[in-house]
Description:
52% of the residues lie in helices and 20% in strands. The chain has helices at 4-29, 32-61, 67-92, 112-118, 130-133, 138-144, 184-217, 227-255, 266-281, 301-317, 349-352, 364-370, 376-386, and strands spanning 97-101, 107-110, 151-156, 159-171, 175-182, 262-264, 286-291, 296-299, 324-332, 335-342, 390-396, 400-408, 412-413.
Amino acid sequence: MLEPAHRWKLLVGSTVALMAGGAVGELVAGQGATGVAIVAVAEIVLLLTRIRHETQLMMTTHPGISPLQHDRFMTRSRRIASSLRDLRSAAGSLPDAVVLLDGQRHVRWFNHAAEDLLGLRRPHDRGADLHDRLSTTELAGWLQDGAQEPLNDVAAPGHPNRHINVTLLPFGNNQRLLLARDISHLTRLEQIRRDFVANVSHELRTPLTVIHGYLELIDPEDVPELAPVLGEMRAQSKRMGQIVEDLLTLSRLETQEHIAEERVPMAPLMATIRKEAEALSQGRHRINLENTAEADLLGSSKDLHSALSNLVSNAVRYTPTGGSITIRWRRTPDGATYSVTDTGFGIPANHLARLTERFYRVSSSRSRDSGGTGLGLSIVKHVLNLHQARLDIESEPGQGSTFSCTFGKERLLKPGGNDES
């Protein structure tokens, strides 16, 4: 029989472990319930192991135990079993789906949320191969590929109208823990936000066009005392119009799942981007072009032009007069990289991770002076995502910055041909 002190240690230890798991889950991934689930399942496994160990110990080392020893052992087993039931009940009541898998990814245990979100059924699916059980869903391919990275925003097998995020974690002795979280409410909120931005942008476009048109009709020479005011009003109305256009572009990219793929000749595109940069610079910078990749891209010509020229225009805006800007298109072991390097102000390291957020400013006053909308890098990120490419940023204050767009081999085409490069 467990001593009172030991019982309290077991109870307090289990409670503290659950609280610590929740805290770590919240800090690391913003998912406190996930941390609790992992700790709860771990404690279940440890208690089962302890029961099995003590049973074997009693049976092998003490074949002739006394009735008193037997009673103590049974009392201890009942208390451990009671703790086990409490832990299983806690894990079973979690809102996130929890599935414990063995080394062959057969289902050992799952909670009630897994029945609801993943469509698993008791007792039929206990011991079943999870890949076979989910073979008709988006999760099957993810599991087949090794499930190295979390799978975000997919339809729930148990409820096609709901959306989930899924993670597969290593656990115990060659076991896996599958966690699925219902994000349907977040998806709905995100859709509401997108619709709001798109609708407001459409509604603002017409009045801004009218205002800008009337301002253009007023000749500053007719009212010289208002010339500075008219100039500022024209500049600001033009900037507001550009913000609206960028918001509409972002709304389109966010809701777009596929692109119209076509050949994008990179040599003429880069020549066009260079001319645009020179026109924006008006001789204040040295614009260099290096094209050594000898490859075209497969993708959307319009969107790629928008994204790649955006990086160059940013470099022109944030590089002091006399600086240099280098545009490169070169091969890499994994594909090809388009990069823009400048000798501008540079960006502190603590800002780099947030640069692609909408309207994020490293320096508000400098951004206003440059005429930027604060949406350019968000557009770049979404365009690259549609092309399965990534954006890398390297920068050091006072030393300039390099923005690199890396495209995979599957996006490369031989110049003037139809085969992959």
